[in-house]
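Task: encode each sequence below as structure tokens.

Item 1
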Amino acid sequence: MKISRRLFLHLGAGAAALPTMSRLARGQAWPTRVVHFVVGFPAGGGADATTRILVARLSELWSQQVVVENRGGAGGNLAHEMVAHASPDGYTMLMGTNSVPVNPFLFPGLTFDPMSDFAPVSLIGTYPNLMVVPINSPAKTLPEFIARAKREKVAFATPGVGSSPHRRST
């Protein structure tokens, strides 16, 4: 079979253009195994409850099991360290709270840097912090409470070091 000069030139031009054409990129399927969401606080708290609601929906969307791992302790640093040193394959994620950027200022000598070891993925939600007193407390406003605390010893509770309501007393 004889190929016309025109067809030959078209085939040659097409063959020369093949390497410059973009190719379809095919990403690997993800996730193909269990995804771990690590929470830096014990089970039962706000971060844990929020994470459990989130992972239930993600399990449905991804058709893959997503589990919550609670690593409470050291103001969340045990969880932060675990995730910072985990394989960067997307199968270990941190449910970050405000402790991620705050803890480097509270705990010297951390083995991770939140600015370089973590990449934000999504804002899950926000919630306010509240200060409450017993109904029979003489302090009904914040200034009244502060004045009382300056006069006498008062007891208070926080979720722990590194949490937003925590403040080291001086």
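Item 2
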Amino acid sequence: MAIDPVRAEQIGFTEPYVVIEGSYLVRDASPIRTIADVDRPRVRVAVGRGAAYDLFLTRSLTSAELVRAETSAGAVALFALGGLDAAAGVRQPLLAYAAANPGYRVIEGRFTVIEQAMGTPRGRNAGLAFLRDFVEDAKRSGFVAAALVRHDQRDAMVAPLAAVT
């Protein structure tokens, strides 16, 4: 499940095993160079209505305007038609679009990240220790990467190994 501060009040989480990043697609000629450049007056951003990125950006953008399409793919299409400055979405599909369509690029960095992890109710320390070891082993061995490929999950990437303490 996604790591969330409210959930963490009752659930002990492992380090993430999968990370899903949100970024922006812009035209090559765009003056937008960084994630922060997007949140400016008169910048219009296409986003899929109700997507996690729509919800996040609705809360976090203070100056840019969101223009909603019915789907995330529709947001990219709406942006490509012209008149908008960026499309918000999951990094991997945006990169694929830019690779297949000259004249576009994806901004470096991310405006949000969803971290997927395993968890157990707080207080079950032995179980949490087991899960933490399991997750790190699954990342290190390639199990998580293979599962993503096997299930055609191109929108996610394996999370980095946890720092050794």
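Check on item 2: Residues 125-141 form the longest helix (17 residues). Residues 7-17+117-158 form one domain.
End of task.
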